[in-house]
Automatic annotation (TrEMBL):
Keywords: Ribonucleoprotein, Ribosomal protein, RNA-binding, rRNA-binding. The lineage of its organism: Bacteria, Pseudomonadati, Pseudomonadota, Alphaproteobacteria, Rhodobacterales. This is Large ribosomal subunit protein uL18. Part of the 50S ribosomal subunit; part of the 5S rRNA/L5/L18/L25 subcomplex. Contacts the 5S and 23S rRNAs. The keyword rRNA-binding applies. One of its GO terms (molecular function) is structural constituent of ribosome. It comes from the Bacteria. GO terms for biological process: translation. Gene3D superfamilies: 3.30.420.100. InterPro entries: Ribosomal_L18, Ribosomal_uL18_bac-type, Ribosomal_uL18_bac/plant/anim. It holds the Pfam family Ribosomal_L18p. Belongs to the universal ribosomal protein uL18 family. This is one of the proteins that bind and probably mediate the attachment of the 5S RNA into the large ribosomal subunit, where it forms part of the central protuberance.
Amino acid sequence: MANSKRELFLKRRLRVRNKLRKVADGRARLSVHRSNKNLSVQLIDDLRGVTIAAASTLEKDLGVVGKNNVEAARKIGAVIAERAKKAGVEECYFDRGGFLFHGKIKALADAAREGGLKF
């Protein structure tokens, strides 16, 4: 019996997270979540279990409320890089979850790299 799309997504997410956990070396995790309407990203310190910085298309001051497109992803990537630098984080690892690395996810990652984050 074939797995559902959701089951495949969850398996892919766990596979990505477990591989990243092996090479984490105490660095923060840049975790991305994409829904049908919004895009959000968090910089998480897994050792302490706290969120260091976050950005989302739900934030009104960013001007991308409700937009889930590549331009919004670029803006969110730049914002998270700025907030990470302000919090003193320069290196992290990119946790794309179960999402494929193309389109919005790739645009977000590229913008965060341009903003100064290393992963």
